[in-house]
Amino acid sequence: MLYQAQKIEVSFNFSRLLPTHDTTQVNYDNFRATFDQVGNTVVLAAEDYDVFAPENYPHWLKLQKRLEKIEGVESVLSPINAFTLKRNDSLKKLEVVRMNPELRKPDLA
Cα separations (Å) of 14 from 11, 25, 52? Predict the structure, then answer.
């Protein structure tokens, strides 16, 4: 028995709780494939078709500020400061642009 103990290995993988074909599991697997390291990332999702509606911005800003105050949180990406990539054909490169350039955080405070 003691001889077999030499072959013990530690795994930091979580047990699979969902079937491999479940949409949540598929989305998670795609996320891991895209971003590789997920051990230090927390993703909160909200199912709301009006996520970018101006009347929701004060609520998102409040949540963002609360999350930023948590010890260990380095950054928070929310609809308030979301960005996208835009193709610049004249420069032949992608540019990072705000999704809502008219939105300014101080206006919401």
Answer: 8, 13, 34
